[in-house]
Design brief:
Radius of gyration: 22 Å
Shape: elongated
CATH architecture of one domain: Beta Barrel
Strand order of the largest sheet: 1-3-6-5
Largest sheet: 4 strands, antiparallel
Number of strands: 8
Strand content: 25-35%
Number of helices: 1
Order of helices and strands: EEEEEEEEH
CATH class of one domain: Mainly Beta
CATH topology of one domain: OB fold (Dihydrolipoamide Acetyltransferase, E2P)
Distance between the termini: 77 Å
Helix content: under 10%
CATH superfamily of one domain: RNA polymerase II/Efflux pump adaptor protein, barrel-sandwich hybrid domain
């Protein structure tokens, strides 16, 4: 009988870090040009109005506006609805108010 436990190597001793994917700006959020709306692998969410997609399928905003997610025939689209930035500040919405 062995007096010490046999020490072998394990096959499952590693883990990768999270990639921080997902929706970054939700429905009704004010957004600036170039800000990231969605980080994704593949095209799970499609681009709509005033958005563009980069080579790693990240969706960005083209203009100042408000985020709008729309479901249509089992597909989700993200669009930016234009808004006048000066009016947005004057109405004291969100963090832009002082």
């Amino acid at each position: 009988m062995a007096h010490k436990k046999g020490v072998g190597s394990t096959k499952n001793g590693r883990d990768s870090i999270g990639k921080r994917l997902g929706i970054k700006k939700f429905n009704g959020t004010f957004i600036k040009p170039g800000q990231i709306l969605v980080r994704q692998r593949g095209k799970t969410i499609n681009i709509g109005l005033n958005t563009y997609i980069s080579k790693d399928y990240t969706i960005h905003s083209r203009i100042y506006g408000v985020v709008k997610y729309i479901k249509c025939k089992n597909k989700t689209f993200v669009s930016i609805m234009p808004i006048n930035y000066k009016k947005y500040e004057q109405k004291n919405y969100g963090r832009n108010s002082k």
